[in-house]
Dicarboxylate/amino acid:cation symporter (Methylovulum psychrotolerans), 414 residues
Amino acid sequence: MTPHTQAPNRQTLYVGIALLLGIAFGEALNVSLGAADPLLSQIVAVLSVLTDIFLRLVKMIIAPLVFATLVVGMAKMGDIQTVGRIGLKAMLWFFSASLLSLLLGMLLVNLFEPGHALHIALPPVEASSGLPNVKPTLSNFVAHIFPKSIAEAMAANEILQIVVFSMFFGIACASLGELAHPVVKLLDSLAHIMLKVTSYVMHYAPVAVFAAMAAVISQQGIGVLLSYGKFIGEFYFGLFVLCGLLGGFACLFLGRRVLSLLRHIREPMLLAFGTASSESAYPKLLQQLERFGCDEKVCGLVLPLGYSFNLDGSMMYMTFAVLFIAQAYGIDMPLPDQLLMLLVLLFTSKGVAGVPRASLIVIAATLSLFKIPEAGLLLLLGIDQILDMGRSATNVFGNSIASALVSRWEKALR
């Protein structure tokens, strides 16, 4: 491990510098060209391609990495009781953390009331939000859990479906013992190869972060931060409080090792923040958690599940957004309705996993359920990327805490 000890620090520094340069370059473009300039659209298109290349390369890694690590983990665990025990501990933590995120979001948005201070013309009630009409139904939920084809699930990067297939495959390998050993060994090699591919792809991360930030700021300008400053500031404050609570709880079990965990995951968090994508951090996060001391078998199961069930930052954003829009329209939501909304969000947020802009689609469905005009989402579309940066980084932090805690509870933390 000696050759790798300094590389993460340098990479974090490069990503941080790229983030700042992207903001500066984007603002320079916005001021010099203006949002309506056709040249700006062409520059943004090029910048978006640079980011898209990185996200595509990361997505290329995720499916084989999840499949290989999970199958090897299942096979090494040896029995279904161990898998069930780890899965149950993980799901209990996910449920608790999600509920905490939703409740904290509801508390803060009622305390700060950012919607009441919004002084802009509201869109007409019949206006469309422009989002695909994907309703979070029971059939959609089931469809996103159970694969009809592993090839299709891998092609679409449906993590939850890959997890289900991998668990069946891994448990079957464990039960066959020596007969399945060559396959397990092959997949173990595949996992290490994909992690090596990850290290190559991560060299491109600063370019992707620079391009992503420059594209957002050049179109919106730093001025959009001032226009929505109160809402953005209060949401990010909420994310800091949430991370503090999760980190504080982790301290009870991990003690001062929480600081070491933060040092290990700062690069994946910064990567998720810069690209506004939790997925972009997955391969690097898996690598860093194992370097921290988490058990590879536990990480192989907990992390993929967390990416479907434990998106703490996104959960907080959903309550924040729904109540913000209600406040902006002057619609009063009594406490019973708000608690019902939390219950709805707790389950419907799992029904659109893998759908682009899933948080916004869940919010749109929740708005219509409570007779709040869905067009209110137009108030947030302009700053969704800025908010997505914070919630993506928080999602990475939450899943890191989950992996470390379950490893600790399994007495498998090195």
About this structure: The domain at 12-120+137-410 is CATH 1.10.3860.10 (Proton glutamate symport protein). The chain has 18 helices and no strands. The radius of gyration is 21 Å.
